[in-house]
Amino acid sequence: MKPSIWAENLMPFDLVARGADGTGWIARHRVGLTIAATIALAASFMAEHYGAPAMLFALLIGMAFNFLATDKRSAEGIEVASKVLLRVGVALLGLRLTFASVAELGFAPIAGVATLLVLTLCAGVLAARLIGRSLAFGLLSGGAVAICGASAALAIASVIPKKHLSEQDVLFTVVGVTALSTVAMILYPMIFGALGLDDLQSGYLIGATVHDVAQVVGAGYSISDRAGDIATFTKLVRVALLPVVLLVIAVVYRNDSGGKVGVPWFVILFIALMLLRNLVTLPTSLLSLSDNVSRFLLLTAISALGVKTSLMQLMAAGPRNFGAVAGITIALLAMALIAVESGLV
């Protein structure tokens, strides 16, 4: 019997769902997604009990299962986890931002954060050139330091065409900024205290220089509640600039898309959710759920990236790449200290 017109029209979608070999989407991706999610859960458990960053645990555990990246049963699911779940997790970050929190700092400190971000990106490009690396690596490492660590690195890597950036570069940057952020969480409060800075100045500096949100919160509230509040607000300003940076990078690489600037769908969703968060009163339970889902999706994506990379490949990046990330981090700290000493805050 000849298929109906409805069946003929649905056939292309059916092939996408089932794959060329007729295997269902769930069957093709179930194993890989389950592996990545299990590693993410294990990393969360270890982070809670040992006090180290969950993303670092996810990377290390993932790399231990590198042999699964080429297994036919898990390869496709690992790929989906490292790309699709990553983008969804980044988009959900938009629900964290409130205009009221950002506005509390005032215009000058916010302008200072934006200026530091631009200068840090420039420092990243300069550092990459000094060690013989590409513009893409400079934007990746500079953006990760300037905005929000591992989350920013993953988002930026999603915009840069794959031919300009390897997954090893992404993983190395994630490891570098995560490790340095942990060190900064411990050292920066002591440094700022030794310099005689008040809670407002210390909170601003922590929010403007520490990479990951969790470490910002930990470092800020270790000084005082006021310092923690200011640090969190300042950090949110940096996160709010993420879609702007992604759009600029899309423009930089427009020639790779036929001269057209394609705005990634997850950037559009990020902006839409940020507007929704500020224009509509959403239940606290929904915001909390979204935050937890975003963190878990990003952790799952990191786990999948870890599975796709061997330890030998990661170490092959050499100390120069880590030196570049460390140099950018020190440059950001120095510039932020100069800004505060000049009376910005």
Explain what this protein looks like in three dimensions:
By secondary structure, the protein is an all-alpha fold. It has a domain at 100-290 and 310-341. It contains 17 helices and no strands. The chain is globular, with a radius of gyration of 21 Å.
Number of strands: 0
Mean pLDDT: 80
| Biggest sheet record | none
How far apart lie the N and C ends?
77 Å
- Please identify the structural class as seen in this structure: mainly alpha
Quaternary arrangement of the chains shown?
A: single chain
One letter per element, helices H and strands E, the order comes to HHHHHHHHHHHHHHHHH
- Which parts are unreliable, with pLDDT below 50 for 5 consecutive residues or more? 1-17
What portion of residues belong to β-strands? under 5%
Helix content: over 70%
Helix tally equals 17
Topology:
Elements: H1 5-18, H2 25-50, H3 54-64, H4 75-91, H5 99-103, H6 107-130, H7 135-146, H8 150-159, H9 167-194, H10 199-209, H11 213-223, H12 225-240, H13 242-252, H14 265-279, H15 284-307, H16 311-315, H17 318-341
